[in-house]
Design goal:
Blueprint (H helix, E strand, L loop, with lengths): L15 H15 L6 E2 L11 H14 L15 H12 L11 E4 L2 H7 L10 E5 L4 H8 L6 E2 L2 E2 L2 E5 L17 E5 L11 H14 L2 E5 L25 E6 L1 H4 L7 E4 L5 E3 L5 E3 H12 L5 H8 L4 H27 L4 E3 L5 E5 L4 H12 L1 E2 L1 E2 L10 E5 L4 H16 L1
Parallel strand pairs: 1-15, 3-6, 3-7, 7-8, 8-9
Antiparallel strand pairs: 2-10, 4-5, 9-10, 11-12, 13-14, 14-17, 16-17
Bound molecules: D-malate (MLT).
Length: about 400
């Protein structure tokens, strides 16, 4: 008798954004005359930068000739892209990352979800709350948790974020092996300083643990004093893996390109305490289970680092950050405390009400989709997340509709 992986039965019935999509579809069916404005899932709305499109077209033209055609590429990514990433995203900021420490992939969601596979199933896991749900769900699927009680799984060390700590969690009180951190944070938009990050790096070094650092939103950092990468922090090469994405940075949510950095100096241990290269494990996993991102997509991603690409990406981010500023101001003017939106495309709004009820109210009364904070963990209850990814016009209409809904 074939048996299922019963760990899946411990999960909530559906993935957060699938659940929201279902509710929105039902609402649209019931009220087809008023189009909803989507400020829920962080999905970009603007065209790819011109430099990326040009490179994309050129690469497709190359594929149209026998001489320029490419079949399977290197699983870890083409050298031209890995070198551009290492130079522009790391070395230019004083972080010592080499091209062969970069693994190009089709998404940070996949990488942050898959990385846990290379660690022992008994690893003790620390996960912030609230946070992007993929980290928790994939550990549940892997059997690292017990049952879920009152919104929390047995066996997970939750790192609480709240208004008192500014959504920067404190160090765990019990020893942990694998620590997920996400800055600028999804969903709260909170950012971490170099001094605060150093505390985590030192903790990981002292406890022989590893930090899984999700920096998918680093391009939205405006404050020059904030670190963009954990590798800007001394000692991080020995304790951290970093995840990045072109999705939000350059509008690649539908194009698919991301990367993970695994320094060669990063070690994890066998049961007998022998150090083993994490880079070699991830390389083995990647080459067995992944066949690389397509050549045209990697050429399009490389173009992000051209002079024109850099300017166009900066414009794209400025566009969304103008939305973020307007959303934050509008909600604050209505008397709702907010964080985020200054170095992040997400605005985290304290509603003081049940977050799914607030989500439903905004959907019904304003026709605006947000994300209920409780979907990111129990500490998200009472909050909603509003995304800045939409047009200026739609954001202006959404803020008008929200104002009317909340004042009625
Ligand atoms: C989000 O809205 O949190 C993200 O867009 C989801 C994702 O990147 O998978």
């Amino acid at each position: 008798m074939i048996r299922i992986n019963e760990n899946y039965l411990k999960l909530q019935a559906s993935y957060l954004f699938a659940d929201i999509a279902r509710r929105v579809a039902a609402h649209q069916k019931a009220q087809p005359d008023r189009p909803v404005i989507r400020l829920g899932i962080g999905d970009v709305t603007r065209a790819l930068p011109e430099a990326c499109i040009t490179a994309f077209h050129q690469a497709i033209d190359e594929m149209a000739t026998d001489a320029g055609f490419r079949g399977y590429g290197p699983e870890q990514g083409y050298g031209f892209l890995r070198e551009a990433i290492a130079q522009n995203d790391f070395r230019s900021r004083g972080a010592h990352i080499h091209a062969d420490e970069i693994f190009v992939s089709d998404g940070a969601k996949c990488d942050t979800g898959n990385i846990q596979e290379i660690f022992d199933s008994a690893s003790r896991i620390a996960i912030p709350d609230p946070v992007y749900p993929v980290y928790l769900d994939t550990n549940v699927m892997a059997g690292r948790t017990g049952k879920c009680r009152n919104g929390r799984y047995d066996g997970i060390t939750y790192l609480d974020g709240n208004a008192q700590n500014g959504f920067i969690p404190e160090l765990p009180e019990v020893p942990v092996d694998l620590i997920y951190l996400c800055f600028p944070n999804n969903p709260t938009g909170a950012t971490i300083t170099a001094q605060q990050l150093k505390v985590w790096v030192d903790y990981a070094a002292a406890n022989r643990s590893i930090i899984l650092y999700d920096a998918a939103y680093e391009a939205f950092i405006r404050d020059d004093g904030l670190p963009h990468s954990i590798y800007e922090i001394e000692g991080a090469r020995q304790v951290a893996i970093e995840f990045r994405s072109f999705s939000k940075t350059a509008g690649f949510t539908g194009t698919r390109c991301a990367y993970t950095v695994v320094p060669k100096s990063l070690m994890a241990f066998t049961a007998s305490g022998e150090p083993h290269s994490v880079h070699s494990l991830w390389s083995r996993r990647h080459s067995t289970k992944f066949n690389g991102v397509s050549y045209p997509v990697q050429r399009a991603a490389q173009a992000v680092y051209s002079d024109a690409g850099k300017r166009q990406v900066a414009d794209l981010i400025d566009y969304y950050m103008t939305n973020a500023d307007r959303i934050r101001r509008a909600l604050q003017a209505l008397g709702y405390p907010c964080i985020g939106g200054e170095n992040s495309p997400y605005i985290w709004v304290s509603t003081g009400k049940d977050s799914w009820a607030f989500f439903d109210m905004l959907l019904q009364k304003a026709g605006v989709v947000c994300t209920p904070g409780a979907g990111f963990g129990t500490c998200g209850e009472g909050y909603i997340r509003i995304s800045a990814f939409n047009s200026h016009e739609n954001v202006a209409t959404a803020m008008d509709r929200i104002r009317q809904a909340l004042e009625s």
